[in-house]
Write a structure and sequence with these properties.
single chain; about 250 residues; mainly alpha; two-stranded antiparallel sheet; two-stranded parallel ribbon; disulfide bond; signal
């Protein structure tokens, strides 16, 4: 009996170790994208809105500069396809791109993708409700012609243009709510958090004060440690060990 219990204990401890390692693999990583670095590191010269990530970044200084430019060499994407975005609106798209290119805290949401220009993407990042709401408020009077900016553009000129018969309307026409904007514009890269706001430890912030630290590190750790609902996860292994302990004491 004792040998069986000790054997089960050993297997349980191995399972927990595997689960913790699995979580750690999702922390402090860069996705396999078009312009991402292989691994995060210090970048002292990150440009303007990308600068909060300079202590540990997946982007280079040149990428951060291009992230602030319309139709830059990064993706040839023209944000002003229906006229100029308001400055307040444009800031959110720059911040969105800085988060995508520079953040090392998106590991729990990185997924493989079959694409000619990248091998991985992010999916369902829990975006803090304040960030989503502000994005929509600041952009609702700017104009666009599509609700999904990932695909369906006319690229014949080398940059994205509105498809034939796609009319330009205020953002609020294509995105009637903050959730529709945050979740639809990049094909579910974001999941709009309705219950969690900044400081909750359960949603990713686009905007943060680097002097106060990067709050997304704790958020990534929270989701990394709870991302594996299988027998090798901490959440499943720990209850198993608590049930096993009384048997071990009796053996």
């Amino acid at each position: 009996m004792a040998q069986v219990v000790w054997g089960l204990l050993f297997l349980g401890l191995m399972a927990m170790a595997h689960g913790l390692q699995k979580g750690d693999d999702l922390l402090n990583v860069c996705m396999d994208g078009k312009h991402h670095k292989y691994k995060p590191g210090q970048e002292d010269n990150l440009h303007q809105q990308c600068s909060p990530w300079k202590k540990r970044a997946c982007c280079t200084a040149s990428t951060s500069i291009a992230a602030h430019e319309d139709a830059s060499h990064l993706y040839k994407f023209n944000f002003s396809h229906c006229g100029m975005l308001t400055p307040a609106c444009k800031r959110h798209f720059v911040q969105d791109l800085c988060l995508y290119e520079c953040s090392p805290n998106l590991g729990p949401w990185i997924q493989p993708v079959n694409s000619s220009w990248r091998k991985e993407r992010v999916l369902n990042i829990p975006l803090c409700k304040e960030d989503c709401n502000m994005w929509w408020e600041d952009c609702k009077t700017s104009y666009t012609c599509k609700e999904n900016w990932h695909k369906g553009w006319n690229w014949s000129s080398g940059i994205n243009e509105c498809p034939v018969k796609a009319a330009c309307h205020p953002f609020s026409f294509y995105f009637p709510t903050p959730t529709s904007l945050c979740e639809n514009i990049w094909s579910r890269s974001y999941n709009a958090s309705h219950s969690y706001g900044r400081g909750s430890g359960k949603c990713i912030q686009m905007w943060f004060d680097p002097a106060q630290g990067n709050p997304n590190e704790a958020v990534a750790k929270f989701y990394a440690n709870s991302s594996a609902p299988d027998i090798f996860s901490w959440g499943c292994s720990f209850p198993f060990l608590t049930l096993l302990l009384p048997l071990l004491l009796r053996a």
